[in-house]
Amino acid sequence: MWIILLFLALGTLAGVALRRQQRLLSWANRGATTAVYLLLFLLGISVGGNQAAMSALGSLGTQALLLSLSGVAGSVLLALLLYRWLFCERD
Amino acid sequence: MRNSLLILTCFFAGLLLTRQTRLPGWLTDDRASLYTLYALLFLVGVGVGSNGQTWTILRRINWKIVLVPAIVVLGTLLGAGLAAHFLPGISWQEGMAVGAGFGYYSLSSILISQMHSDRLGVVALLANIMREMLTLLLTPLLARYLGKLAPIAAAGATAMDTTLPIISRFTGSEYATIAVFSGLVLTVLVPFLLLLLLG
Question: Which of B55, B88, B121, B162 has the smallest number of Cβ neighbours within 10 A?
Answer without folding.
Answer: B88
